[in-house]
């Protein structure tokens, strides 16, 4: 195993059994064995997203699936709302603008979730609104946005609800069908505990209709091709990251066996444990509202502490944590808990963390 503990919002340390699969010889992607694995992966991804529809597997990072979630469902000039509660919400906005969408940017302060009344107002004032882009777990700040409330607004309308749950899925509650989500994306290097390189896209029947009329350019990320190949032969249209798909097969089996609810409860418990330990050291939590805290990571800051130098020192001691982004680049520390991390490992980390903070006081 790695000598470094990755307390980052992804990638995570990779469990030994997945490293063994990744280190084994691969198989060809146009064989019965591979097709069987693709079918199994699809069935288990459906359980994790909580959808009856197939889930496409792309070979890309999460950002590739963000692009796919825009180019497949909208047309040039479409009016689309970006709910911008951090760095990744802003990335959604940027991708939309690059492809010529008419973006409405609903921006909030770092650490704040969105206001539902603001969204209702945008919908009321824009009867031609075609979509809402939202981030489930905003890793740049540690915000968990209420997706169900958005689905309640869009479910009986033509508005597509497109959700980035790249770091949110598995460790936070998510219900694709039950919440009336139209497009949801996730990534392999987060709670799936395998390396970066795979992205997953779930699509509703409503979104599939929009795919028929989308005029934005797409080739590699054309989801119709993924659907066509999977329906015909349980394959991918282009060469996928085969080793990752084999490791994903085991990861998904383990997640389903453990139970998603159990995983969520375990992570919530660990998040609260980290929060308490940080507060005892005089740190404040960036996200004040308990229900808006993601189980993916914990964002903390303390006046008078230059966190960048602490992060560098921790790296040298074998602990990788991340700083903030944007205006919190100097002051914020984000402690990720997506990996297989025990309370004992957290205790060990905080001993070193406290030593480094004392050097600044």
TrEMBL record:
Give the binding site residues for substrate: 334
Is Repressor one of the keywords UniProt gives this record? no
PROSITE patterns (UniProt xref): AA_TRANSFER_CLASS_5 (PS00595)
| Obligatory cofactor(s) | pyridoxal 5'-phosphate
Cite the InterPro entries for this sequence: Aminotrans_V_dom (IPR000192), Aminotrans_V_PyrdxlP_BS (IPR020578), PyrdxlP-dep_Trfase (IPR015424), PyrdxlP-dep_Trfase_major (IPR015421), PyrdxlP-dep_Trfase_small (IPR015422), SP_NH2Trfase/AEP_transaminase (IPR024169)
* Recorded superkingdom: Bacteria
Any idea which GO molecular function terms this record carries? alanine-glyoxylate transaminase activity; L-serine-pyruvate transaminase activity
Could you tell me the keywords of this UniProt record? Aminotransferase, Pyridoxal phosphate, Transferase
Q: Which GO terms describe its biological process?
A: glycine biosynthetic process, by transamination of glyoxylate
In which family does this protein belong, per the annotation?
Belongs to the class-V pyridoxal-phosphate-dependent aminotransferase family.
- Which named protein is this? Serine--pyruvate transaminase
State the species of origin: Leptotrichia buccalis (strain ATCC 14201 / DSM 1135 / JCM 12969 / NCTC 10249 / C-1013-b)
* Phylogenetic placement of the source organism: Bacteria, Fusobacteriati, Fusobacteriota, Fusobacteriia, Fusobacteriales
